[in-house]
Fold each of these.
Amino acid sequence: MKHLPTIAILLFLSTISAAQSKKYKSIALFNTQSAMPFGKLAGMFTENLHPGIEAGLGINFSVKEKHDYFWELKASYFFHRFVQHGIPVYANIGYRYKFSNRFSANAAVGGGYMHSIPATAKLKLNENGEYENNKGVGRMQAIATFGIGTGYIINPQAAKPIRLLITYQQRIQMPFVRSYVPLLPYNSFMIGISKPITTKPINHK
């Protein structure tokens, strides 16, 4: 099971050359709160801000009139005050249902790697009985993700139509602190856009 994120990323990369015309890129801003899965929504707008930014590359590897299946590779950064700076890199596989040529809903599940850097000082006693910095370069962590969201294409007839995105994502970081918090759950609310990398073919009919 621990190798599943690596396998997913390799499968994603192997798909790129076979789906050039279906590739897209995305960027989003988000706020994140530590809470049990689906345990916080209103708090995203009323409690402390833990901001982040995320960039992604996606491929629609199966496209039908009403249904898309996609791979995504995401990299992001977020700041959780007094806890950590987080740098997640992960892969998603997901499904999109298209209500019309503008509106859609989607769900995705994934996993990957996160680098965690403490956001506060971390000290230890040296052999002289003095405190010295023990922050280091951070810790290697694993993450699992699940997200649901909606999309709206501004101009479906454009050569590279822009899709507005809203996503509510659950992320589990592990092992955070083995002795008392082995799993650290996060709820994130994301707002962003995606855009095709290549121009869609022109319909001459």
Note: The chain has two helices and ten strands.
Amino acid sequence: MTASRKTKTVLLASPRGFCAGVDRAIQIVEESLKKYGAPVYVRHEIVHNRHVVTRLEGLGAIFVEELDECPDDRPVVFSAHGVPKSVPKAAAARDMNFLDATCPLVSKVHVEAERHHGAGKHILLIGHEGHPEVVGTMGQLAPGEITLIETEDDARTYAPRDPDNLALVTQTTLSVDDTADLIAILQSRFPNLALPYKEDICYATTNRQAAVKAIAAECDLMLVIGSVTSSNSKRLVEVGEKVGADEAYLISSAASIDWAAVDRADTIGLSAGASAPEYLVDGVLAALRSRYEIEIREIRVTEERVVFRLPRQLLPEKAAPEAAE
């Protein structure tokens, strides 16, 4: 006689997974391969997810870290995280065919930084040192024109030349709560600090964190699918821990599940970072079903209908007008 299987409740966070910027970036690589043929070069991982990168490699994409690894005669795509201004400038100097997959919400931060700099302000950037998005944003201006603020200690000790002439931008994939704490410190020290017209943390990051907050307090275990290099995915784990999940872990796929932790849990929360495809969520649910009876409850905090247009080079060419008879 077989022993009865344990029952687990799975709270499925929604929204989760791909955002509009990630979806657009992947489409840019796919459509470039269709239009120009393989290989198409991509500077840096198009998005921070190895499963996505491996699939695109199978279609003919070649991922490199620097532009000098690309030949002049093949298209090159710049990743969703954005690049310093020097990169497209160098590509144009080589007469390369380049396509910019920078998320439009990251591009908005670049424009804000330039606008404030044009008004004579020094820019403070809240973000994580070395992250490609931060490298790209800091590279929009000359060295020394943007100061990176990573921690509360940075915010408390930063000593500007002109405290009344500062402006703030942020990385788009940060923890909403942690960023608010840093902004509060900076505002208390610099009352004239110019803030973004609209919050720089992107809608998808905000929504995914809100969805995790909606379920984490009920969870014995919170699982977030995403890459260890994905900032927004790591922030989801931190949010889950902060809100009250007993345990919270980042997993790359079903293959990296800690089954001992799952066995301890009665209620499991499941989300996915903005660069994790939905089939990885399906894989985790299938793996759970293979061992347990599971009851799934999807908790949706908002609907997302954002869509970003592809670059002009990839849009269908308009049909030529018929000649007059």
Note: The chain has three domains: 7-18+203-300, 20-103, 105-189.
Amino acid sequence: MNTDTPEPVIQTPSRKRWLVILPLICLLAVGAYLFFIKTPTKADKTKNSTPTPPPTAVVTLPARKSDISVYLTGIGSVTPLNTVTVKSRVDGQLMEVLFREGQTVSKGQLLARIDPRPYQVLLTQAEGQMARDQALLKNARIDLQRYRDLWAQNSIPRQQMDTQEALVRQYEAAVKSDQGQIDSAKLQLTYSRITAPGSGRAGLRLVDSGNIVHASDTNGLVVITQLQPITVIFTIPEDSLPLVMRRIKAGEKLTVDAYDREQKQKLASGTLLTVDNQIDPTTGTVKLKALFPNQHNELFPNQFVNARLLVEVKRDSITVPTAAIQSGPKGKFLYLVKSDKTVELRPVEVGESQSGDSAITKGLAIGEPVVVDGAERLREGSKVEVKEPGQTRGRTSKQGAP
């Protein structure tokens, strides 16, 4: 029985050589991979390095001393002192209209005429009746004198003389009544001439010539509104009332400025006239009335305005532009530029504001430079470069957004 035995593996010299070289080639390949992949290139070094940011361009202004005016603002409307609806006081046909719409009329100026002929007839009748009664009165007085002479001679009884005296008094009353009729007719004639009851601006004509007008008409002929002077009624919070009343009791004349709806254009200046006698409980405000000369008709009736009441002027206040004041979680603060061209965050307390400036009541000294433009790009200790106004925007566009 033959048993197969495995032949022994014979390793030749070339096979032994490859067993040694092959691991060395693998080690060299791994080393080369690690060297070229992990070693950063010059571009990578440039990309990963963080360059030092350039100084931020800002505009600064020193804190200065100035006066700050304290105003109370309120919403109001223009209200004329007098508004009159001109009506006819007699009935008749409107013969003539003598005013133009929008015309400024003066007190007593003739505006329209109503047909006066019916009232002229009444006047003539009253004068004729008076002439008749005067003639009767004259004759009764003559007879009374005769009766007195006859009674003195005991020629007539006393009763006849008394009756004549009563007749004289009756005619005297009739003459007096006739005089009243004449005066009434003359008054009706006067009312047929419609005049302006006051000075002001005439509105649109409500009745044309030729129409029959009555004293009971509700619309009237025209509405006349006084424009000079004119008032503004506005409201302020009830908490501000004590400050206003102190100024009024001291005899001061408080100035009131009227601004347009957007509070950009000043329309007119006047003085405070009076304060209402009660507070509105639904709104917590009180009404004030200011008087304006309105020489050039800057204000118009029922116009909406924003009123600003000057109640106090704070002298020698430390002020900075309002744009320099920043808001943060801890309140208001400013950025101050130090001598080493870095900024310091300075907490401050802000007071009143006026015309783009705000008063700083605490935290700032006069002359300290504060950042008024470019503060949105700053942090505590940021490097800055002080520029003239108008240059920061150009520098920001070149540098790009931070």
Note: The longest strand covers residues 304-321.
